[in-house]
Please model this.
Amino acid sequence: MNISALSPAQLQQRLRERGLCIRTGPFVTRVHTSLAAAAEGIGLLYADYPLAEEEDFADFHIRLALPNGLRRWLKPQVLFLFDGTRTFKPLPADQAFPMFEWGLNWCVSSHAQSYLIIHAAVLEKHGHAVILPAPPGSGKSTLCAALAQRGWRLLSDELALIRIADGCVVPLPRPVSLKNASIDIMRQYTPDAVFSRQVRDTMKGTVAHMKAPADSVARASECARPGWVIFPRYEAGADARLTVVPKARAFMRAADNAFNYSLLGQQGFASLAGLIGASSCYDFTYSKLDEAIDTFNQLALPALLP
Model:
């Protein structure tokens, strides 16, 4: 049963009373909230996600709540509670859905230690994953959103999960976070995609989320083998260009983008070495999405590389 099977009234009641158990990739999250802004975003962007059984183990317990006192009524705010504990500073109440997304990223990156976790977008084609580590402002999410709408399977917009046991890339498809100018770019580039309403004046500027393709959500249990590690950078006016990155340098740059590389110690080193060893590594600059997608579609499969 998917979330879309619930009517808006049923969804709000579940969120308000028993909590909604959402299965995203390998995780189950139980979320409680009475905030309309959060329910709106979940109903719109998580419609295709399966509901876990209420008796199933939940990895994360999240509550989005209004604070007590005047802040409940005067310039209302939202609190993010993890296992009943306030985790972040409160935000304006209309930022409830972005806060849910940011908080869920924190839950995974802080607690899922059976994976090497890299701050990166991840997509898949022909069974191989392309991993895009990059800092904010590099055009990573815009490129990821465009690829996900042009034949690449979305595995994640923010968190690359490398399973320590076997080195496979584990999907965690969730809404793609877009900021500022990239929102209108993607609205024009993919007019049939579903977007949340824009939320202004957040700590990241204006933000909106694009719904993950239904096929990516349905195939969330299909892992991928490492194929490419590509460091993307948007550069106005630049032609799409791939430049080979030596593996030693790629290793260090990927480690810089990992959340738990040091925490995992030897396992982290071995996992990252396995990932880089099995991947072709490039820098990538682009300015036009169509050129970027053409370049990605022409990537040689790892098995065919000399």
